[in-house]
Amino acid sequence: MKILLSAYACDPAKGSEEGTGFHYLWETAALGHEVWCLTTPRGRDNLEQRLAERADDPVAARIHPVYVAVPPAVDFLYRWQFGVYVHYIAWQRAAWHAAQPLDQRLNFDLVHHITYNSLQMASWLWRLRKPLLLGPLGGGMQAPASLRKYLPGWFKTETLRNVVGQLLTAFDPNVRQSLRRAALVFVANRETAALARQLGARRVELAMSTAQPASFFPAAYQPRPPLAGRELRILWLARVYPRKGLHLVLDALGRVDKRVPFHLDIMGDGPVGHLVPGWIAEAGLQDRVTWHGQVPYATIRAAYLGHDLFMLCSLRDTFAAQYVEAMALGLPILTLDHHGATDFIPDDAGVKVPVQSAEATADALARAVERLYDHPEELASCGRAGFAFASRYSWPQLARELHRRAAAAAPELAGLAPAAPLVAATAS
């Protein structure tokens, strides 16, 4: 098939949405399709370098980047959060104008919008009137108001975000039109599924939104050393954004019974990093926490393998890639039971604490830490279950699975059904 991929964020040298855009691009081509990718010039150097390094690979030969720029004034606005919305909307319009002559020349069989994965932004490319696949999308989640004490700048980060999202779904015709015209909408959590159906999507299916390179996975589950006689090693790894819940994690760990020896390693930095020392002191954890700041990506794999428990309690998250990273390396998870964590972290791969009041939620997390320390066999069984689950989610496996499901769900997408496995160099 000739596929037009809309991947505003696409950069092989980065994680998050940039990495997702690149991996879907590569794996779609690895399944034998010719792929033209609309993206911004921001990741151009890294993308061109990766394709040049694999110039002899037939997969790279099937990838055709199309770099769509916006006016310099709009580029300037990108440095502010509001400017990101403006930049993306302007890019969507420019991408639509770039897609028209491309389609007239190439007659695409399918359009797939992949990044940004926000349902509230959707895609302008429904206007091509070709079979349209959306997602996996997020965007239907809201941070629990009961936990607002852990979200600095609640009005800016949550209230305004929710208002902007409501305005976009109410007044941007591209949102409803793209959802209603899509042959299939993949969504990354049940909250987004409900919103997509409310806005008129015909076919909606839950789907994993992230994966890992095949090279990331060990050949087998790697057990941790026995816990007896040593402290419980806990890892928190993410960008230090308000919604990532670090304040909640620290508050919860401050409530753990003093008989339980543990040490928390915080890896990451971000916009509210300046608040972290105060949160640590407030919880009385100065001697039990090490904040490493931003760490090189090359060290992350060893960090997961060197800990006993991964504790990321995002207050709002589509589905954090770190969950798959942790499970892929056999690390049990302690998190909140909402959003993507509810749908895609198996119950036997960790502990998911219900969202209650701030006090009750922090207390429940503390009791979970105590229980896991007292029952190390549960840590081991959770690690094994997570490893077995995550082993299904390398990027090649995820792309093949989503294409198979799309072909089965919608007659318009039947051409996506994967053929025999292709032998090609890995994208990682």
How would you sum up the global shape? globular
Q: Would you report the number of β strands?
A: 13
Q: Return residue spans where pLDDT drops below 50 for at least 5 consecutive residues.
A: 422-426
The averaged pLDDT comes out at 94
What is the helix/strand order?
EHEHHEHHEEHHEHEEHEHEHEHEHEHHH
Round the Cα radius of gyration to an integer and report it: 22 Å
**Fraction of helical residues:** 40-55%
SS-derived structural category: alpha/beta
Compute the number of helices: 16
| Beta strand % | 5-15%
Ends: how far apart? 24 Å
Strand order across the largest sheet: 3-2-1-4-5-6-7
Largest sheet: 7 strands, parallel
Topology:
Blueprint (H helix, E strand, L loop, with lengths): L1 E6 L8 H15 L3 E6 L4 H10 L4 H4 L1 E5 L4 H6 L3 H26 L3 E6 L16 E6 L16 H18 L1 H9 L2 E4 L2 H9 L5 E3 L25 E6 L8 H9 L7 E6 L8 H7 L6 E5 L6 H6 L3 E3 L9 H8 L4 E4 L2 H6 L5 E4 L4 H17 L1 H15 L4 H15 L19
Parallel strand pairs: 1-2, 1-4, 2-3, 4-5, 5-6, 6-7, 8-9, 8-11, 9-10, 11-12, 12-13
Helix pairs in contact: 1-16, 9-10, 9-14, 12-15
Describe the structure.
- The chain has helices at residues 16-30, 44-53, 58-61, 72-77, 81-106, 154-171, 173-181, 190-198, 246-254, 276-282, 300-305, 321-328, 339-344, 358-374, 376-390, 395-409; strands at residues 2-7, 34-39, 63-67, 110-115, 132-137, 184-187, 204-206, 232-237, 262-267, 289-293, 309-311, 333-336, 350-353.
- The chain has 428 residues and is α/β, with parallel strands linked by helices.
- The strands form two sheets. It has a seven-stranded parallel beta sheet, with helices on both faces. A six-stranded parallel beta sheet has the order 10-9-8-11-12-13, sandwiched between helices.
- The radius of gyration is 22 Å and the shape is globular.
